[in-house]
Design goal:
By secondary structure, the chain is α/β, with parallel strands linked by helices. Helices cover about 30% and strands about 25% of the residues. It is built from twelve helices and 18 strands. The strands form four sheets. The chain has a six-stranded mixed β-sheet, sandwiched between helices. It has a six-stranded mixed β-sheet with strand order 17-16-7-8-9-18, with helices on both faces. A three-stranded mixed β-sheet has the order 11-10-12. Helix 1 crosses helix 2, helix 5 (about 155-165) packs across helix 11 and helix 7 (about 305-330) packs across helix 12 (about 410-415).
């Protein structure tokens, strides 16, 4: 990437997710964060997960270019909105740095995706990309830096997350630490024995509130927490407004409640009203031919978790936990050996690690050593722009040992073993 003009001191950091996109405007001279914007990924109508979008893109060049144009137009819109909000001229923008999983990176750059869509499931290019925005159809004049995709479905978003936390190849310590970017393409890294292992698990969009009957991104009106106070169900929304749906943290809270109260059994079956002995039975109804649990209702709206939603969450949590187990086994350690677990994702303002234990992703030790980082990948991109630490990012990406999961017998066994929910005590 060419050195930016000294008069052009603005840069934009982007976390390009499968479900959501987050962007921030920085002053690269002072390092100040000037504004942030977010939106839903406009490719969603062509598939809720990366596999569906790759299948669509493989139909032909026209389909692949449709996905590329959609996401590039949305990124330019977000960048323009950031400049407009701050009253900054487009001429002050020098660069845009983008972190994404390999599928999103390929579609952004309009690269063929067959190598990702079919065995051996590898990116066409694992290196970073430096291109002009105009070469991708933008009207803005800026340089784009797209983070490297180390391999498989492990992408620049995980690299950015680790970079923002200060993980460096030259300072790897024997203290076992686990890093999880819990999104549609769940990416996991394990630092153990002086090595950095990484993998990805196709969790689907459930943890981000996507592909659920009443799921939504972590925006105003999303129910972010649910709890029982005595015999009364209470909830909180982002923005403290009337509920519009459930974001990821609200989904996990609801599941923790349903499991603890015995409204959902260990196999994931939502019980019928006659099988529930508490007043929560009144919240179980049939909607669309399947049972559903009502979280909120008024004269105009209805927010609920359906049996199908619960099955989606089961698949997601089993994939993530199985991926963690594979990395631990590869490193020759147990979950109880972990000294730190760092979690990020777009499921809400925060996430209670106990909720991840309740659905079977975390062990008790993991809960005790866990911490949550808001917008971890975006923060890592921002750090890269502030410090111009591109060489460090490249070294970090190269240091990852990629562990593929697809077709791995150990992963398949663990996935099936983790499908059921753990037994919980009433809250």
């Amino acid at each position: 990437m060419s050195l930016p003009d000294a008069s052009r001191s603005l840069a934009v950091a982007v976390d390009l997710g499968t479900t959501t996109i987050a962007a921030s405007l920085l002053d690269t001279v002072s390092g100040a964060l000037l504004a942030r914007e977010g939106s839903l990924n406009p490719q969603r109508p062509y598939g809720a997960d990366v596999v569906s979008r790759l299948e669509y893109a493989c139909r032909g060049e026209a389909e692949r270019r449709t996905l590329s144009r959609l996401v590039n137009a949305e990124l330019e819109r977000l960048v323009t909105a950031l400049l407009s909000r701050t009253g900054m001229p487009a001429t002050a923008l020098s660069q845009v740095a983008i972190a994404a999983n390999p599928a999103m990176s390929h579609l952004l750059l309009d690269l063929p995706v067959e190598s990702l869509a079919f065995p051996p499931y590898r990116p066409r290019m694992t290196s970073s990309h430096r291109v002009s925005a105009r070469s991708l159809g933008w009207s803005l004049d800026a340089q784009l830096y797209v983070f490297p995709s180390p391999g498989g479905f492990v992408g620049g978003d995980l690299v950015a997350f680790l970079h923002g936390l200060g993980v460096r190849p030259s300072s790897l310590t024997p203290c076992p630490s686990l890093f999880i970017d819990l999104g549609t393409n769940g990416e996991i890294a394990l630092l153990a024995g002086g090595r950095l292992y990484a993998t990805s698990a196709a969790a689907g969009p459930a943890f981000e509130g996507g592909n659920l009957a009443c799921g939504m991104a972590a925006l105003a009106g999303a129910i972010r927490s649910v709890r029982m106070t005595g015999s009364r169900l209470e909830w909180e929304t982002i923005g403290e407004v009337v509920p519009r749906g459930l974001c990821g943290s609200g989904v996990l809270d609801t599941m923790m409640l349903l499991l603890a109260e015995g409204v959902v059994d260990l196999t994931g079956r939502l019980l019928l009203p006659a099988e529930v002995r508490t007043n929560l039975a009144n919240r179980i109804v049939e909607l669309g031919g399947e049972p559903a649990f009502i979280v909120y209702r008024d004269a105009a709206s209805l927010v609920y978790l359906s049996q199908g939603d619960i099955r989606q969450l089961q698949l997601a949590k089993a994939a993530i936990r199985a991926g963690i187990d594979v990395l631990l086994a590869r490193a020759g350690i147990e979950a109880s050996d972990l000294a730190e677990v760092v979690l990020t994702g777009s499921f809400g303002v925060s996430l209670n690690p106990v909720g991840l234990k309740s659905v079977g992703i975390f062990t008790e030790n993991m809960v005790q050593v866990a911490r949550f980082v808001t917008e971890g990948a975006l923060a890592g991109v921002e750090e890269t722009l502030r410090s111009a630490s591109y060489a460090v990012v490249e070294q970090l990406a190269a240091s990852l040992t990629i562990i593929p999961l697809s077709g791995t017998p150990v992963f398949e066994r663990r996935f099936l073993a983790e499908m059921d929910f753990p037994r919980l005590e009433p809250v």
